[in-house]
Design goal:
With 162 residues, the chain is α/β, with parallel strands linked by helices. It is built from four helices and four strands. The protein has helices at residues 6-19, 32-49, 108-115, 136-153, and strands at residues 25-30, 61-67, 94-99, 122-125. Strands 1-2-3-4 form a four-stranded parallel β-sheet, with helices on both faces. The longest helix has 18 residues, at 32-49.
Length: 162
């Protein structure tokens, strides 16, 4: 399966990362947006290990929050890179996967499969359907995740690590 418009979407994300000269970026996606974040996480992970200059901006992506998401089904190379979405390597991007037990649009099993694509995924089951619940527990979990990602990325003196 090939996603129509994927390369253009990736180029827009890349331009935003370059325009704002991002050093630390967290991405968030809901449903199909979480699938896009999965692909961006592939590029971020590759940026850490691959010398391709075109991947460098994606290295700013330090963590991803994926809500009611499913793993990318795109097959083949991504956006003029040697990155192939069929690669089964675990992505070394911090990730928080949020889904609901009663989601009938993107069943919990799909969210769990997406989480398994990451090296050390964190998971939060809000118990509801295909929604982003507005509650204190979820808000606190997201804040805790972002705080831990930020602390991991910076050295305590405001300097970005590695």
């Amino acid at each position: 399966m090939q996603y129509i418009g994927l390369d253009a979407s990736i180029e827009i994300a890349k331009e935003c990362l370059m325009q704002y000269e991002a050093e630390f970026c967290a991405i968030l996606g809901f449903s199909q947006g979480a699938t896009m974040c999965h692909i961006l996480s592939m590029l971020a992970s590759a940026a850490k290990h691959d010398g391709q200059a075109g991947l460098r901006p994606f290295g700013a992506i330090k963590c991803a929050i994926l809500l009611s998401g499913f793993a990318s089904m795109h097959s083949g190379p991504v956006s003029n890179t040697s990155i192939d979405t069929t690669n089964n390597c675990k992505l070394d991007v911090r990730s928080l996967h949020i889904f609901g037990e009663r989601d009938t649009s993107v069943p919990k099993a799909y969210g769990e499969k997406l989480a398994s694509c990451f090296a050390d995924p964190e998971v939060y089951d809000h118990g509801k359907g295909h929604v982003i619940p507005r509650n204190v527990a979820l808000s606190e979990r997201v804040i805790q995740f972002l705080d831990s990602c930020s602390l991991e990325a910076y050295d305590g003196r405001g300097k970005l690590c590695g």
